[in-house]
Amino acid sequence: MVVILQSDITANGEIIANKDVADVGETITFDIINTGVGEGSTSRFTINFHDGSALAELNNVFAINHSFIFEGVYTITMIAISNYGLTATSSTTVTIANQQPAVDIVMPSTAVEDQDVTIRVHNWTSATYPDTDHDKGLLRYQWMLGDGLTREGATIIKSWNQSGDYPVHVYVSDDQGAIGYGTATIHVTNAAPTADFTWSPALVGEDVSVLFDASPTTDTPSDIAGLKYYWNFGDGQVGRGKMRHHMFVVSRNFTVTLTVIDNDGASNVKTRVVPIPNLTPIVAATGSGLLREGETGWYQAAASDTPTDSGFMAYDWSIGGNGSVATRLWADDYHGPATVTATDPDGATGLGTVATRVMNTNPYIMVDSINMLGTLTLKIAGTPNNTLFMRVLRNGCEVNYTHLTRESGSPRPGSKSASLPMDFDLSQEWVIEVFYGHLNESRVVNNTGVPNGNDIISNTTENFAVTGPHQDARGANPAWLTFTFQDGVSFTLFRVFWVWNNYSLVWRIDPREYLMTSTLTLRGHVIDRGADDLVVMITCGNSTASFTSSVPGHLSFEYAIHDWNNWVNYWSSLQTLWWARFDEYFSKWGGNFDSWFDAWWAQNNGSEP
Fold first, then answer.
1. What digits encode the pLDDT tens for the residues 323-347?
2. Which pLDDT band, with edges at 50, 70 and 90, does 319 fall under?
3. Burial status of residue 454 (CB atoms within 10 A of its CB: 0-12, 13-18, 19 or more)
4. Alpha carbons 561 and 487: distance in angstroms, whole number
5. By the 8 A CB rule, do 1 and 90 touch?
6. Cis peptide leading into 201, omega within 30 of 0?
7. What DSSP designation does 146 have?
8. Of the residues 63, 96, 129, which one is the last residue of a structural domain?
9. Is residue 221 domain-shared with residue 145, that is, in the same domain?
10. 514 domain residue, yes or no
């Protein structure tokens, strides 16, 4: 209302509020308009807000701000005072009422677990407000986030650690307790883990413990602690856990697979190829370094490798042999390495050597025996039907025998003979016995019934009885024993056996007494421990013989010593002379030895001539 004073001295003024409706506590500006002219111009004003506050006194001030702390309709009264003390009253009415705040939520509709999400109330434009300007700065925001947690503030940052749909509510209250409400929903999804792993040491081999570590695996912070780790090492072995020790026992490239699963069942797989190289075995070889031919060398190899490979190591020796230990009989001289190759199950090889020297050795020459080799031949003449036995004794034991009967009507004395082989080792005692006798029938083990034919007799000293001929026998029997050697050399011994000497005469011959007239055969052999080819030279007088081995390392030889021609010629001349005299003497009786013997016996009255 404007009051116009008609008089120039009357007070003049008008109060105008900048808003008719305001919020509790909201500032309202009241403008004062001086409507007086000249003397009627007014510069003093008193304002009563009628809210219990003090009167406002203004002097030359034409505006005032005021707020009301309670709701209601207020009539504000202004009294204008002129310079003459005259007054004029004007008023204006304002309504103080609290406005309920309005709210709208601004946030994304989706997120992943543990993702920070910015949630805020809407930034209103100047045309619309969530509340009065007065209350906007005093609003309080209470958030309910769907997971049991609350927050305050116009803008918040929130994350959810589990997937799902979460309702988000905000309650806005002003200073008067008026409440506004807003709601929205956010869909939180699970993020699958990203599997990854490392291993140490970076360079590994067979039988080395390897640490597999899945720490590089990533996931949302809420899920990372609950991840489950499953390993497949590509060799048939599996494991669980974030960290896992594993050992590969063979060499090759292994594909190791890590599978990671979070608490929502989401999984991810990571594979890496882990190369496991094979280690080359290191071989230490020891053994016989210095030997002689014919000795056995002993060698041993020890291969250093992974524990698994060491138990399956194969060895091959250049000297022969397939184990960690090898032996070699060195048949020949040698100077060089004994090499062993160790091969592990994956084919890697290592070498070891033993420096070996096998020295040549001199051959051994041995004379085994000196023998008289050939044939013993017994011839008989004289009184018919008398039998001479010949046997050979070695060291007192009979080894052979034969017998010869003087048959009647022989064209010439000594035309019939009996022979025994002669092989006398002169290191033994040999005796040849010739005597009258007849078979000891008790010792005949197989009598064929054929006179003087194929009777099998045990070779003992009881084979026959030294009893001479039958009791009706008479006369005498000359006997010749000839030694014939393999080289054709021979000599003959002679003896006459007389019936009247009680038939007990035994003619004993020791072959060693006739060495000077005999061909001696030297038997021996040569052994070389190194199995070399052998050549043996034997020289006796002006004679030299050479022998060559047919088998390496061994040679046997026989060498005849027969430089006894003078002795042989001497004995041959004696034999020829004797026969000449015997034939001359015997011819006087017409070749009838029995007639001669009868005459001789009668003449000598039974005494030996």
1. 999 999 988 889 999 999 999 988 8
2. very high
3. exposed
4. 10
5. yes
6. yes
7. S
8. 96
9. no
10. no
For the beta sheet containing 296-304, the strands, ordered from the edge strand earlier in sequence to the opposite edge, are 282-287, 296-304, 325-329
d(CA 30, CA 46): 12
Q: What is the pLDDT of residue 201?
A: 93
79-100 pLDDT, tens digit per residue, is 988 877 788 889 999 999 887 7
- Domain total in the chain: 4
Residue 27 pLDDT exceeds 60: yes
CB 564 within 8 A of CB 516: yes
Query: Averaged over 197-220, what is the pLDDT?
Result: 93
Q: Which domain holds residue 239?
A: 198-276
In a domain, 453, yes or no: no
Same domain as 270, residue 287: no
Task: Tell me the residue type at 200.
Answer: S
pLDDT band at 388 (very low <50, low <70, confident <90, very high): confident
For 1-4, the CB contacts below 8 A with 24+ separation are 1/90, 1/91, 2/35, 2/90, 3/88, 3/89, 3/90, 4/35
Question: Is position 45 within any domain?
Answer: yes
* Dihedral (Cα; 405, 409, 415, 419), 10-degree rounding: -20
Rounded to an integer, the average pLDDT of 224-253 is: 95
Determine the Cα–Cα distance for residues 604 and 597; give it in Å rounded to an integer.
Answer: 10
Tell me how far apart the alpha carbons of residues 550 and 384 are, in angstroms, rounded to a whole number: 54
Of 353, 571, 359, 385, nearest to 475 (Cα)? 385
Q: Looking at the domain assignment, is residue 171 inside a domain?
A: yes
Give me the count of residues in the chain: 609
Judgement on whether residues 124 and 182 belong to the same structural domain of the protein: yes
Of 19-28, 293-302, 458-467, highest mean pLDDT? 293-302
The per-residue pLDDT for 404 is 87
- Residues 76 and 116 placed together within one structural domain of the fold: no
CATH number at residue 294: 2.60.40.10
How distant, in Å, are the alpha carbons of 176, 490, 519 from that of 572? 173, 9, 15
Alpha carbon distance 592, 383 (integer Å): 10
Cα gap 165→146, rounded to integer Å: 8
Backbone angles phi, psi at 41, to 5 degrees: -70, 135
Same-domain check for residues 210 and 235 = yes
Sheet of 238-240: strand order equals 238-240, 228-232, 252-261, 267-276
- Select from 596, 464, 570 the least CA-distant residue to 517: 570
Given this model, what pLDDT does residue 123 score?
Answer: 61
131-157 tens-digit pLDDT: 565 666 678 899 999 999 999 998 999
Cα–Cα separations (whole angstroms), residue 34 to 14, 24, 42, 55, 219: 7, 29, 6, 19, 75
Q: Which of 189, 212, 244 is the last residue of a domain?
A: 189
The string of DSSP codes covering 486-528 is: TTS-EEEEEEEEEGGGTT--EEEE-GGGGGGGSPEEEEEEEE-
| pLDDT confidence band for 563 (50 / 70 / 90) | low
Pick from 8, 47, 15: nearest CA to 30: 15
Q: How far is CA 224 from CA 115, 193, 227, 420, 598, in A?
A: 14, 8, 5, 113, 146
Q: For residue 148, what are the contacts with CB-CB under 8 A and spacing of at least 6?
A: none
Yes or no: say if 373 and 521 are a contact pair by the CB < 8 Å rule.
yes
